[in-house]
Amino acid sequence: MTNPVMVVPDAMKALHALSKAAQSSTLAETTHQLIHLRVSQINGCSLCVDMHARELRDAGEKAERIWGVGAWRESPYFSEAERAALALAECVTRLADRPDPVPDSVWDDAAAHYDEQQLSSLLLSIAAINVWNRLNAATRQPAGSAW
């Protein structure tokens, strides 16, 4: 099937607007890209895993950081703030996996590193990539596809 955002052009505009709004805070672009990569890995969206890994590489990120995203807890390549963002991204992506979807410890750690505007940006960014992943995975959009 054609990606739904190509069938319903206003959906493409809306998703691009959401992504742009999410990135309008002082949250580092690298943080957005790291969570986009991790969420895409969790959701099995090959198109987005490929795209966000390439974007990180093109932005000058070291290969170790890109490869390490899937095992960020065990990897020494991430700051405490990035770890907090990745933990929050995992919880928000896997809402149904536990009785307390976003434990206070995860939220408190993120709030210790990010102000309210940055947290809002982070949550919107996590939500946006989850939408993209679900559309791409449901319609089996492969890595390298050009819709």
TrEMBL record:
Keywords: Oxidoreductase, Peroxidase. Residues 9-90 form the Carboxymuconolactone decarboxylase-like domain. Pfam families: CMD. InterPro entries: AhpD-like (IPR029032), AhpD_core (IPR004675), CMD-like (IPR003779). GO terms for molecular function: peroxiredoxin activity. This is AhpD family alkylhydroperoxidase. It comes from Saccharomonospora amisosensis.
